[in-house]
Write a structure and sequence with these properties.
mainly alpha; globular
């Protein structure tokens, strides 16, 4: 079998499979489960890089493979999956199609650019990245479930327009040359709290 198989890619693959399952739930109309799958993919992505960097026995090919696999899975989890969700919210003849195309195109451009810059950075330094150029695509794993929680505070007719317009805004932020600081421990704690809020909303039947 081709590929590189070790524990450093397990979380990446779990996140991918979670998003694929989430897309099936979108088709079934089970949006609560779909957004929780998106959140789970985000949690997996949050820690898979740390696990990979902690492995000191990887050779150069395994490191490059890890970068490529991570980006390919990010493309599915955080651009294709949200695009499917956005398209499914009605208005499919117009804004739904535009939003789905926008987030996938923006994600492809950003991830391709990131791959080039990250590979170059790793050749020149062993330091951890401190900031990103543009909004990371993984941010949708927290932002979109929070938007869905807020659905109850909007009219049913307005929410699809709001969600799909926000998707287009995110796609622009993916490719804008802005500096976004990589979250440290405090930021990770905040993300963890937000994840707990989302899960609590699901358990209490508010999603």
């Amino acid at each position: 079998m081709i590929g590189f198989y070790n524990y450093t890619v397990i979380l990446t693959y779990i996140g991918l499979l979670s998003s694929v399952f989430g897309m099936t739930q979108v088709i079934e109309g089970e949006y609560s489960i779909a957004f929780l799958c998106l959140l789970l993919s985000g949690v997996c992505d949050l820690f898979d890089g740390k696990i990979a960097r902690a492995c000191k026995t990887r050779n150069q090919q395994e490191k490059v493979f890890g970068i490529q696999i991570d980006s390919l899975c990010d493309l599915v989890c955080f651009t294709v999956f949200p695009g499917v969700i956005s398209y499914s919210f009605g208005l499919n003849h117009g804004l739904g199609i535009v939003s789905a195309m926008a987030i996938i195109l923006g994600g492809v451009i950003r991830l391709g650019f990131f791959n080039v810059m990250e590979e170059e950075r790793q050749r020149t330094t062993d330091e951890n990245r401190k900031e990103y150029q543009g909004l990371p695509v993984t941010s949708v794993a927290i932002i979109l479930p929070l938007l869905y929680i807020g659905k109850g505070y909007m009219s049913e007719a307005f929410f699809p327009y709001f969600f799909q317009s926000f998707i287009i805004l995110l796609s622009l932020l993916f490719v804008l040359n802005i500096k976004v600081r990589k979250p440290k421990l405090k930021g990770l704690l905040i993300l963890g709290i937000l994840a707990v809020i989302i899960i609590a909303g699901f358990v209490r039947g508010k999603l």
